[in-house]
Amino acid sequence: MTALDISVIARRSGLPASTLRYYEEKGLIRSVGRHGLKRVFDDDVLERLSLIALGRASGFSLDEIAAVLGTDGRPKIDRGMLTDKADELDRTIRLLSAMRDGLRHAAECQAPSHLECPSFQRFMRAAAAGRLRGADPRQRG
């Protein structure tokens, strides 16, 4: 394996060095030493960073990704976790599709006032009942 300093890893991965240091702090990646003041990583860290990027793009938190990556450098992908995330994405897609359709209807509605439109009224009631909130738990409550 080839040891690469953090600036090379940053350039090859497209991530700023600060993100790499943060990932190391979170236990997602591990440096193998230092070259002067710079951290040094094995070149296999690039594959690990690709896995992290895939996890982030799929909506997983860094803590969830850390659990998948494990400490021995070999990912332990929980298929149930993948299924749960896919189900969550399905719910989000349905929600966003319904919101898109409601907004398009509101934009095209010929009623004199949106408040006179039965479809817009249903959309407002759904929002008031919390049925238009996303899957993000920070939006609840």
Automatic annotation (TrEMBL):
It comes from the Bacteria. Gene3D superfamilies: 1.10.1660.10. Keywords: DNA-binding. The keyword Transit peptide does not apply. One of its GO terms (molecular function) is DNA binding. Residues 3-71 form the HTH merR-type domain. PROSITE patterns: HTH_MERR_2 (PS50937). This is DNA-binding transcriptional MerR regulator. It comes from Maricaulis maris.
